[in-house]
Design goal:
The chain contains 2 helices and 2 strands. By secondary structure, the chain is α+β, with helices and mostly antiparallel strands. It has one domain. β1 and β2 form a beta hairpin. α1 crosses α2. The protein is elongated and about 85 Å long. It starts with a strand and ends with a helix.
């Protein structure tokens, strides 16, 4: 069970989770880096909006990463299937030669 003290955008609270402290700190530091990017926009004053936009940016990044992973997996699977088909065709060809 990990513990984390959150101090961001004028809000402070403690968090407990079923993760190690090191992991919680890692994701918190990442979140703070995104919030800092959003915080640089002078048009945004409301901390709640900053937090929401930061969350949306992270969700966008996550979705793009998942799409990229799915595409990579599909490409790898397609390559594996193509290779399996080539091997199978060679085996059939060799079997046909032997049985003649």
């Amino acid at each position: 069970m990990g513990n984390l003290q959150i101090d961001i955008l004028g809000t402070s609270f403690a968090l407990q989770a079923n993760e190690e402290d090191e992991y919680l700190n890692k994701i918190y530091e990442y979140y703070k880096s995104i919030v800092r990017q959003v915080d640089n926009d002078p048009k945004l004053k409301d901390p709640l909006k900053k937090a929401i936009i930061s969350g949306i940016m992270i969700c966008d990044e996550l979705c793009k990463s998942k799409q990229k992973l799915e595409y990579t997996n599909q490409t790898i699977n397609r390559q594996d299937l193509d290779e399996a088909e080539k091997i199978t065709l060679r085996m059939i060809e060799n079997l046909n030669k032997v049985s003649k």
